[in-house]
Amino acid sequence: MSYELYYWPSIQGRGEFVRLALEDAGADYVDIARQKSGVDKMMKAMARHRVFAPPFLKDGKRVIGQTALILHYLGPKLRLAPKAEAERLRLLQLQLTITDFLVEVHDTHHPIANSLYYEDQKPESQRRAKSFRESRIPKFLGYFETHATLPFSYVSLSLFQVMEGLHYAFPGTMKKLRYKNLARLREKVSERKTLREYLMSPRRIPFNQSGVFRRYPELDG
Amino acid sequence: MSYELYYWPSIQGRGEFVRLALEDAGADYVDIARQKSGVDKMMKAMARHRVFAPPFLKDGKRVIGQTALILHYLGPKLRLAPKAEAERLRLLQLQLTITDFLVEVHDTHHPIANSLYYEDQKPESQRRAKSFRESRIPKFLGYFETHATLPFSYVSLSLFQVMEGLHYAFPGTMKKLRYKNLARLREKVSERKTLREYLMSPRRIPFNQSGVFRRYPELDG
After folding, report:
1. Are residues B93 and A50, on separate chains, in Cβ contact within 8 Å?
2. CATH 3.40.30.10 fits A3-77, yes or no
3. Is A62 on the interface with B (CB under 8 A)?
4. How far apart are CA B71 and CA B154, in angstroms?
């Protein structure tokens, strides 16, 4: 039976971390909300299964929410993580640190409220983005750099996506930074055959101004 | 062998969610950073084991970071979670939603940068807290309310702590809200014998103006 992924149909967002894993593994899955009346189906499934927010995954009767947890669950099934518990927990720990980072990326353009437009929190965004560029990017990427040489796993795919996103959203900032291991990982992942087909296909939604990573030049310093 | 908990010695913060689990279970543990030269020991262990941030737990040779993951790991060992994998993942999913909520609680007083004082981001805090009180508390507590009748687990202890913290930080806001199941859970947890001894002991650090939950009347509306 196919996996069912439930996520917003017009953005990469957090769902993209799951899409990358499913696509790289060549897994059989349906991206439910991108079908006809898909968002409606997603909202109904979310209420029925009492999930807090997309993305969530259905695998038969199992329903799993929270991006990092979905990847932890899929890891061994898609051969994107070893089966040994200790190693699985180490990967999940790293993935949860990526989760923390994504909140901070998102809050560069939404430091006040998710329910407000970016335009209604612009001065605050500029203050927050300054601190993000100067202290948070180095802190997190410095940490990820020391883990970027681990064996290939779903975490590698997620770090690839983080680097893609940062280069999209903060091109000026990223041009000044050197993270050798992360740069190499990004290149190696982009060359994976199945994944590359996905990245070139229309299934890969382009980065845009509604996702987690957004390009506002005034936030790039 | 005792568990070793590594967390800041003067605040409840995220470490308190782990302390509550260890204490309720009557587990044998050492709160490393609260010993002599403890913070120094913590910083060294953090570097040695390449952990991103406190809290982290040492169990013999195992080192585990990320609050929710520590609880997931300890759950079955402390009899605060069943052993069955499906049920464990359901609890972890809930705990990760609590993690998400704690970031939002923290950001009510630090919407711009963790590295700045609250006093240097006061107007932004007031804007963020307004949206937090009006949309985020109802969204998260409404969700937790529907899960507050689940069998006792580490998630119950965490929800207790969330309610304690919100009543400390936002007393005016909380007085106006009614969450029957969460209120009952809070009361039941506070009456657990071993936990109550902890809560009355000097080991329970009082809420203060350095933790995740802080009482700034101007943020309480």
Report:
1. no
2. yes
3. yes
4. 7
Contact status, residue B57 vs residue B63, Cβ threshold 8 Å: yes
With contact defined as beta carbons under 8 Å apart, do B179 and B118 qualify?
Answer: no
User: How is domain B85-192 classified at the architecture level of CATH?
Assistant: Up-down Bundle (1.20)
Say if the Cβ atoms of B112 and A93 lie within 8 Å: no
- How does pLDDT run across A51-77, given as a tens digit for each residue? 999 999 999 999 999 999 999 999 999
Per CB-CB distance under 8 Å, the chain B contacts of A121 are 127
Q: Please report where in the chains the tokens 């845009």 appear, as a residue.
A: A208
Answer whether residue A119 shows pLDDT above 90. Answer: yes
Name the CATH topology of A85-191: Glutathione S-transferase Yfyf (Class Pi); Chain A, domain 2 (1.20.1050)
Q: What is the pLDDT of residues A84-100, one digit of tens each?
A: 999 999 999 999 999 99
Where do we find the tokens 């200790």? A86
B97-129 pLDDT, tens digit each: 999 999 999 999 999 999 999 999 999 999 999
Query: Whole-model pTM above 0.90?
Result: yes
